[in-house]
Amino acid sequence: MRFSAPRSVSPSPERRPRKPKPKPRDDNINHASRRHTSTFGLNSSSEESESELELESDSGESVPESEDSFCYASESEVPPPPSKPKRLSSRPSHIEDTIAAIRLRTRHYDPYEEWEREMKKDSLRAAHKNYNDAQAKFTQTQNQRQLEQSRRLAAQFKQDELQILQKIDHLRIQQQTNEKTLQQRLNERNALEQDRVQARLDAEEKKRREEEERRMEEERKKRLEEERIQREREEEQRKKAEEQRKRDEEQRKKDEEERRLREEQEAALREARERDERLKAEAESRKAAGMTTYADDWKEARKNLQILKTQGTRVVKTNSTLKPLWSAGRRAITAKIGQLTNDEPTINRVSSQLIEILLPPLAPIPPPVYTALLSSLAKALVLQAETEITAEKRSAIPLAQVTFNCLERLEGFSEVLYAKMTQRIGPWLVPCPIPEKDFDGRAWKDAGEIRLMQGLYFEVLKIVPRQGPMKRMFQLPRYWTWMARMLGARTLLATSVGAEVLFIALDVLGADALQIWGHQFVKLLRLVYDGASEGLGDGKLMGGTSPDGIAARARVKLEVENIMRGIS
């Protein structure tokens, strides 16, 4: 431990200049005396000077050089060194002068040096005092801490003692309770044993009486046994007849069910043939007008989805150069979509940032990366729509605006988004029944999981383009095509999901469609209302018979009434 000693307040003495000594007669001797401070092997006459030098060296101090020490005022006064050292004269006067000069230097008394020594002593005493005070304070703190620790331990021991006493009292009470319980059980067991002995005596008495009665009952039992055998025979014949009747009834019901299924299959095949014939008859006119069937739209969406996988995502995943670009862009897309809120500045900012990710201003990204990023953007929008619509359907409005902005600016995004939406929600976007085979003729392997995020699609159709017409799958007339196809597919309307999707279509765009198509849309609404009220025909109800379907059918009716109330 280091202690700093304060300086004494005693003033520093001033050195007074001394008169210069006369120079020795021999310059060589003076020069040797200035360069060497030893006593040159002097005898006991210089003991006092040597003792003073030893005192100063023991205290760790160097004797400061006084103003009258052997030095020159300037460089010009220093005599040049001799070319060859000369031997000192052996004359006694020179030696005496040298000894006198050394003694004068060693016996010189300097007040400043004396003051400095006294000041160091005072500092050492102050440091000792500070150390003793700190040690005393540390000892007092340790004693106080030990006292507090002893008090805390005593309180803890007292508390533990009280807890132990309480535990002992609790165990004593519990023991008394257990003893009372055991005594009560012992009394009950004794009473039960007495009852068992009495019951055994009664049983022996009863057995004796039963043996007497058994002889009397033998003849009666024989008679009853013959009657029982006769009744069993009659019951067995009756059961056989009943089983035969049930088998005949089940076979009749089975035949009726098979006949009904055959009729339904024939009706479905007949309806499919009629629909195919009608579609074939309308194929040329549709082709001339640029219209497509639901099967064409479904095949196109599935084909575009396959192209996305083979020419986009799979390519960049297997390429070590393209994969980092795609990964960075995908993370940026997810982050930007998560920042979307329902205000116009944020919608415009997020839209611009998403477009800039796929169309960087400095250098275009490679085509495979662009295709893969289009797929990532479509997937992120669809997943965000699913999340938001689950909580609130109206929350799809800002997301639809961002989607519309991307559709206007990004080439090829319309086909990619439509393909990804059909991948997530199945046939409900077209709409159409799920075909038996995929677009390339292979058997269908998708799980068919349905997610109700159809509102995003209708919200996009609702927005008016600013930079020219959109692709046909995102134009407003597509809504009329969707409604017509939906009402023509009874198998879809008969499900609870079909009724729910129809309600979403009417809720999002029904009032606007009425303003656009007028009386023609009123006719379509009448068909919807009749289907929700009276059924679809052939005993089928819109939405089916499940609780979800019944609720969806009721919402469809209410929405049609609300739309019609707007023009009344």
TrEMBL record:
It is found in: Nucleus, Nuclear pore complex. Residues 1-12 have a biased composition (Low complexity). Residues 47-68 have a biased composition (Acidic residues). Its main location: nucleus. GO terms for molecular function: inositol hexakisphosphate binding; phospholipid binding; translation initiation factor binding. The keyword Transit peptide does not apply. One of its GO terms (biological process) is protein transport. GO terms for cellular component: cytoplasm; nuclear pore cytoplasmic filaments. Residues 1-95, 187-284 are annotated as: Disordered. Keywords: mRNA transport, Nuclear pore complex, Nucleus, Protein transport, Translocation, Transport. Belongs to the GLE1 family. This is mRNA export factor GLE1.
